[in-house]
Amino acid sequence: MTRRLIKILDGLWREAIKLQAGNKCEFCGAPRHIKPLHAHHVIPRTNYRVRWEPLNGVALCYRCHMHWAHKDATAFTAWFKQLVGSARYRRLQKMRQEYYDSTIRDFSYYKGKLKNVGLRGGGNLGAALATIRGTRR
Fold it and tell me: Could you give the CA distance from residue 51 to residue 41 in angstroms, rounded to a whole number?
């Protein structure tokens, strides 16, 4: 998969995670307009099998992301398990271990999946995608 496609999927995933969370920090509840949100990967994004899975992310404000999730991984994992439930957490762990070789077909699959998450969250990922392709970083 090309870097351009990876960047597009990363941007869609990031926006889908924030929309899925109602544009607020899932830990402290701060809204996006008060504190900028980060989309945090539960399983590191170096694992391409779950890099763009909506289940593999939570929206956190800068403080909760950098000073809690990255500093206290044990507490974060316990909180995440409680948030999504044991069954979904186990499913994510199982997916993590599956072999994955990305293709262009995967780009289309995840693009569609992430757009659906955005629509359920009340957002417009089409506009987000246009922004990502344009000037937004």
Answer: 7
